[in-house]
Design a protein that fits this description.
This protein has 13 helices and 16 strands. By secondary structure, the chain is α/β, with parallel strands linked by helices. The chain starts with 8 loop residues before the first strand and ends with a helix.
Length: 468
């Protein structure tokens, strides 16, 4: 591995999911061979899968139609073309919907990104360092990255493109249930649901995309016990429109300056769409497409209001579940196996392997129930990102990193440069992917993730050219 000497520069990217691998790919394509070393730290066997697309669960589907999933914003059908060329859904007849759209298994998109990136790894234009980062330090002119294989890499530019942190369990739940064989604090871990038996009574804490995936996974595995899915507002993830629609509305004609104005404009557009026979999906798609422009046009206080009051409503409409997953939820509800409650966990206790939980319902009353398993799907614990890995904590203690004031990730400016404790941006330290969501607004789903990876690559290319 190159140590960072010589006339060329070294770019190190921590995280080899779609965000990190995408930035590496687009940067490598933009540079002449040998112009810079690009090293991606990713312990998985292949680049491009990351946490989201490394799953082997057959119930996990992409949540966006394949026609809108691509590593290339200017080639939106590249994933579809790759599926056709590789006969990628030959063994997955359920991937093809009645309208011809494709919702294949999530792992297939990971395989696609890996297939696009791997040739550049084989050519040496991207270095895949199969190791976890254990430490990062800043010298006078380099970032020094230590890894789990005992190696040390010296880089001129460092990009943090790791995934969001694991869910945070409600207060008291972790203490009461730690060590229980069917307490699942992190459902994204491999085999997390394996201990849940077919007739177990299951409490899912949360009602978002991951909760929907849990129901679909359990159903596919033959689970037939009672499932209660509870969140404070009881908002269940929505599915896609019955037929494809073009985005509707113009959210940028009179840009909203407050959270209230934005909400009113969206509601007004949905009413107009309804009168035209168009569903709300098209309005949300139009707003999402201008998400960065809308978000960055709002003052910090208004962004914080959106996070506090509107984000749960946005998330369940923006992040839609695949039709196959929606069918699994609908069937479970029809059969009386699934209840969706607006409730929060007040307390929990163990009695052997039974779990007694008291739920506080939204109307103020309480409900006591007994479960055999509890699964936490409360969404990423954004507030704990800087404590989620030792090297991140050390960078924060050294003053290089701060939480974004919206609570959605790590602070950075509109060029992705990290903003440290002193309030200054560090040009050689960039934040990529979902961790930059507080600055860029919409960075949790495709195609915005791939658009952002192109943006990060362009920023790096600009810096490298200026350095020359």
């Amino acid at each position: 591995m190159n140590s960072g000497g010589g006339l060329y520069k070294v770019v190190a990217i921590i995280g080899g999911g779609v965000s990190g691998a995408g930035a590496a790919y687009h940067l490598a394509q933009a540079l002449a061979p040998g112009q810079a070393d690009i090293t991606v730290f990713e312990p998985r066997e292949e680049l491009g899968r990351g946490l989201a697309y490394d799953t082997t669960d057959a119930a996990h589907r992409i949540n966006v139609p394949a026609a809108r999933m691509s590593l290339f914003p200017d080639r939106p059908e590249d994933f579809l073309d790759w599926i056709a060329a590789t006969d990628g859904v030959a063994d997955d007849p359920r991937a093809v919907r009645s309208d011809g759209s494709l919702f294949p298994k999530r792992s297939l998109f990971g395989a696609y990104v890996a297939a696009r990136v791997q040739p550049l790894v084989d050519e040496g234009r991207i270095i895949h360092r199969r190791a976890s980062v254990t430490g990062v330090e800043k010298t006078s002119d380099k970032w020094v990255i230590s890894d789990s294989a005992g190696a040390e890499t010296r880089a001129d530019y460092l990009v943090i493109a790791t995934t969001h942190p694991a869910p945070s369990a409600p207060r008291g739940l972790q203490a009461a249930l730690a060590g229980h064989p069917r307490y699942v604090a992190d459902p994204t871990a491999a085999g997390a649901l394996d201990a849940i038996r077919p007739d177990d009574r299951v409490l899912i804490v949360g009602n978002g995309l991951t909760a929907a995936d849990i129901v679909a996974s359990l159903s596919l595995a033959g689970h037939h016990g009672e499932i209660v899915s509870a969140s404070r507002r009881g908002l269940r993830s929505r599915g896609h429109a019955a037929v494809a629609q073009e985005p509707f509305g113009d959210s940028t004609a009179q840009p909203a300056k407050t959270a209230s104005q934005l909400l009113k404009s969206i509601r007004r557009a949905i009413d107009e769409a309804g009168r035209a026979g168009i569903s709300w999906h098209a309005v949300i798609d139009e707003v999402r497409g201008h998400g960065r422009q809308i978000w960055q046009g709002l003052a910090l206080a208004e962004r914080q209001r959106i996070v506090r009051h509107l984000r749960p409503f946005w998330d369940v409409h923006r992040f839609r579940i695949a039709p196959q997953v929606e069918e699994a939820l609908d069937q479970a509800i029809r059969e009386g196996r699934l209840s969706v409650l607006a409730a929060s966990v007040r307390d929990a206790e163990r009695d052997g392997e039974e779990i007694g939980v008291t739920l506080r319902l939204r109307n103020g009353s309480t409900l006591a129930k007994t479960f055999d398993a509890v699964v936490v799907t409360t969404g990423p614990a954004h507030g704990g990102i800087l404590q989620s890995q030792l090297w991140l904590s050390e960078l924060a203690e050294a003053g290089w990193l701060e939480l974004d004031p919206t609570g959605l990730g790590i602070a950075c400016n509109d060029r992705c440069e990290a903003i440290g404790r002193a309030g200054d941006a560090e040009p050689s330290l960039l934040i990529g992917g979902p961790l930059a969501r507080g600055t860029f607004g919409e960075l949790m789903g495709l195609p915005q993730v791939t658009e952002h990876s192109v943006f990060v690559a362009a920023e790096l290319q600009r810096k490298l050219l200026q350095a020359d």
